[in-house]
Predict the structure.
Amino acid sequence: MAANALMDFDKALELYEPVLGFEVHVELNTETKMFSGAGNPAHEKNHGAAPNTLVAPVDMGLPGSLPVVNETAVRYSISLGLALGCSIAPSSRFARKNYFYPDLGKNYQISQYDEPIAFEGHVEIELEDGTVFDVPIERAHMEEDAGKLTHMGGATGRIQGAEYSLVDYNRAGVPLVEIVTKPIFGAEERAPELAAAYVRAIRDIVIGLGISEARMERGNLRCDANVSLRPRGQEKLGTRTETKNVNSMRSVERAVRYEIQRQAAILAAGGTITQETRHWHEDTGRTSPGRPKSDADDYRYFPEPDLLPVAPSVELIEQLRSALPEPPAARRRRLKADWGFADIDFQGVVNAGLLSEVEATVAAGASPASARKWWMSEISRLANAQGVEPSSLIAPASVAELQKLVEAGTLTDKLARQVLEGMIAGEGTPQQIVDARGLAVVSDDGALIAAIDEALAAQPDVLEKIRDGKVQAAGAVIGAVMKAMRGQADAARVRELVLERAAQ
Amino acid sequence: MRVSEITPELVRHLGMLARIRLSDEEVDRLTGQLSVIVDNIAKVSEVVTPDVAATSHPIPLQNVFRADEVGTMLTVEQVLQNAPDAADSRFKVTAILGEEQ
Amino acid sequence: MSEIIRLSAADLAAKLAAGEVSSMEATQAHLDRIAAVDGDVHAFLHVSDTALQAAADIDRRRAAGESLGELAGVPLAVKDVLVTTDMPSTSGSKILEGYMSPYDATVVARSRAAGLIPLGKTNMDEFAMGSSTEHSAYGPTRNPWDLDRIPGGSGGGSAAAVAAFEAPLALGSDTGGSIRQPAHVTGTVGMKPTYGGVSRYGAIALASSLDQVGPVSRTVLDSALLHDVIGGHDPNDATSLTDRWPSFAAAAREGASGQVLKGLKVGVIRELPDSGFQAGVSASFRAALATMEAQGAEIVEISAPHFEYGVAAYYLILPAEASSNLAKFDSVRFGLRVDVPGGTVEDVMAATRDAGFGDEVKRRVILGTYALSAGYYDAYYGSAQKVRTLIQRDFDTAFAQVDVIATPSAPTTAFRLGEKIDDPLQMYLNDVTTIPVNLAGVPGISIPSGLAAEDGLPVGIQFIAPAREDARLYRVGAAVEALLLDEWGEPLLAKAPVLGGAR
Ligand SMILES: [Mg+2]
Ligand SMILES: [Zn+2]
């Protein structure tokens, strides 16, 4: 059997029940790190910081250094736990997870082990057709991120074949919340869809809380997807794989689908699944085996002796609970009513994961319909072509600004699309791009009338037809004028002028 | 009470976990010494009962936090001050075999 | 020998304040002494080349009328476990040879701010693992009372420096007795404060839940003065207590002059047998108790049934925490790197740690890795943490009956270099009386109680108080010190052999 043999997805579902599980890491956007006063690279102030410029002694494990817990990170974690419907532990504590790796300054990660801050929750996930699926949450715990390794000298920049690696500790110590689900049963053929919807739900929650930028392409939100299959009718769970490095919602969906098909092919051929971590490859759409689980995964957890228990008061928990934003489902109901979209249009926005973007664009002054149109069509098309999230291309405020120019008649829709491309290419503000590219609508009636006269001269029967009531005949003239103006005219205005002319 | 027999294989495995390359001679010596030591310290499990709480910190405290305010950071020069090898403002290490955890 | 180096820190400070001696003179006198005797004693791993500058600065500030701390201008030896920006910090290990810290340990920063003059870094067992300073990667320190004998450990360098008059004061760290046991074998004073009383920030961690930094000196008052400088809350150490501490110097002065022993209830632990203790150690201990009783102290026998499990619990908790704390020494960011041609970073790490760590460190790291590994945690580390609870309960019960507990500071006087180096278990048993104090987090002080009749070597008596009652130890310690001084007619160290030039 070929290593990458896949079973048809529907066939796989006939034979096996997929069981899912997710570990999502969320980087919090606090000003400083989890255990030090160094600036947090996941905070907008520090984007693009040069290597090793956001480092305090404890982040790189300097001798004698000690961690101290960031209070805001704890509050954010409690809020997130509450938003996930979790109970907040009256007392939780940190533990050391011991393993050697060059991106880990201390060669242990401060995490939480047997006493996480939040446990036993659930998240409501809306699928594409609007049905609601309840995902059970096992726990959410606080921990620190590791530094960043860059592999050099290899053919692909990957770890395999690299000659050496460079280590930057800016990211070391960034506050993380790791959200772990319980096994998820019953997703069936919608397992891939559920996977993407789950990650989207987490993203919506943390954005709603304002505790993370949640940009997957920047690693603010990272998903490990666990997949196992069990033959229909079997009680015992199958062996699971853990797919890492899935950094878009679309990839999460594809990776889960791929693993179901891959595992089904192996099982059907009488093979066994190896418990291992697997890596998702965006380019090939496949997963490949990583490190097999072994007794080297003996992390020797023990309570972190440098830190004390976190025991939030009931008052604090209730204060944070009362400050929670409205839950995503309620928010969706409200936005749908506010915007007056048809069911299908609204669900389209939800399914595309663009609710927050449209909302922010409307908040910045655009009409709901125009905001929806921008995000759902042109921006989504460009994002798809580049294989990135639409939100990574442009800020909602810029979209609103662009729309204002359209509504002011400065740009036609077609010109506005060109300006959008310019904005995404980083050419500046809409106005700067209009100026630089010379894209403004020709609003000088004199120039338009001249062009109309020229077109009418070429098609002398048109005026007659219009006067006879065949108004659609104007189209030929309008087309010729638009062509002469190289598209930079407002077609509606041209039409007005042609009709005026016919009425004379 | 002997909870576990210390064997050369176990010592070698512990050396791997602790990232210390032990020579055969070291493994043998440590196996002998650790056996004696473990025999003498294993008695801790005799005296404790399930109802006794574990003490992680001798003076119980809780909720010790730091305000989320930027403090002193190291300069890149300080970060790299003791680096055995560095390039491009980063630490340089030779090829990595294993993967991230 | 210059008279300056014989002065206590308090007396030197008084002369500095009165302008009778300059800090330059005092610092030079100690540098001269180091030059004369440290070839024999080897208390220092590094001698500062900026000490005289710092002293000149204090003299200038004093001359300018600035108000300075009581110890301003007094030289200070710093245990090499504490990181310093102006001198290498190695923790006695080859793996950190030449390491320069970009920041000062809090206790060092506070000492500098108080005007103390760091003279150099003192020798220690590698990463503070040991009771003899023989496990230093840079060679052993020798006991000024007998150069063939150990100065105790891990802080043998700090104790020997003070005992050899190379410094009036030193900073130490105590995880299981590393301040008090060296004090015992060198005839000096050493105090382990309440856990959290002194910041651990910048102390290269051995076992985080046991480590405590403290003062080393020749008199109780001097330790109290230094404790006043280094103690108090530090936001950089989450385990640091926010308590407002009384003046320990005031407590020591009150103890030396007052009647604190009258009615003082002193607990003696029934389970600590006389057997296993050297006869001269027991005798000195009993004699000191008798002296206290004569002044109105009441000796009360108390029970501490779980102390016998202390050493076992300690040798699980310490290696476990140490195995994790020492993982950072991996050749990536600082310290030694051993090249492995064609090797991966894993190979380089493993070869570096093999070459850079000494035998004792490897032994404990492997032991700690074992104690924490899957399947053994509950039986070992988990049980050891429970023993801690039982020992704390023993202390609670005892302190309901007595004001302080007294023990010999260690079972024997200074043993010979090499005598126990190949018998780790025997070495570990050295700390039987000091370890429970660290496990419970309570304060303990060792002061000289006399000389053992059979070998003429110093013996210390340890006093233990409830957590946060450090001042009580200075009060009692100073009272006993004053009584014994009256008996002896001169400080114990006056009986030590003359070093250096006289030989
Ligand atoms: Mg995980
Ligand atoms: Zn994690």
